[in-house]
């Protein structure tokens, strides 16, 4: 099938032909704007030397155009009911392979080794809103498996990811993503670009993976501090950490936190939302020794 799927007419035809209704449990919203898809591919800088991992190809709208741009496309799709659909829509795409499985249960390093000789993959995806964070963290935590991750997410999530200290959107997700990658905003995508229409705007982000972490830290300690700080963000950092920090059974007293903050030149009453990634990293080197 050579017709471009990313249009309202072609998408409705396929959905009606196969009796497909978007499944809420998979967070399905089918993209119907080819211009948006081309912008995503351009932002990801896809070329024929690239092996691309697409998460959730759906009916194949983005897959078709990825197939034209990339050397190889590996799709991971959880909805087995889409088998006959993709057999038709991707019949002319000889460089596409589909793995019928849950991305959260996929051995991504093995996919990298088997599909691209261990060279980093590029990820492109229209992520389901309900499972965006688990998927992003699974991807980001894979050391040297991905060079970039270009994803469509709920605009609110994109704002959180790009946020910095002092902003209401800033939190554990912001810090986690920014530790692993540099997030860049590509575009905002309104609801009318999808069938069915979501209730909110979406955003496309390109996350360019760091070759090395941007800060020196004790990683497990730092993330335990971040979790404690933002689980009780209304409390001062010292109180939140003394009540919520737990790493391998280790607790930290309020006095230990305030002592470390003093060494950093920060007030004892400061809250976690005021600390940058660099300051959480520094705190991890001073605490729980």
Please sum up the structure shown:
The chain has 289 residues and is α/β, with parallel strands linked by helices.
List the helices and strands and how they pair.
Elements: H1 8-17, E1 30-31, H2 34-43, E2 51-55, H3 61-69, E3 72-77, H4 83-89, E4 96-100, H5 108-116, E5 121-126, H6 132-140, E6 146-154, H7 155-162, H8 172-180, E7 181-189, E8 194-195, E9 202-209, H9 219-231, H10 237-244, H11 254-263, H12 277-286
Parallel strand pairs: 2-3, 2-5, 3-4, 5-6
Antiparallel strand pairs: 1-8, 6-9, 7-9
Helix pairs in contact: 2-3, 6-8, 9-10, 9-12, 10-11
Main beta sheet = 7 strands, mixed
> Can you name the CATH architecture of the largest domain?
3-Layer(aba) Sandwich
Question: What's the CATH first level of the largest domain?
Answer: Alpha Beta
Number of strands: 9
Q: Spatial order of the strands in the main sheet?
A: 4-3-2-5-6-9-7
CATH topology of the largest domain: Rossmann fold
How many helices does DSSP assign? 12
Count of spatially separate domains:
2
Measured by DSSP, the beta-strand proportion falls in 15-25%
Mean pLDDT: 94
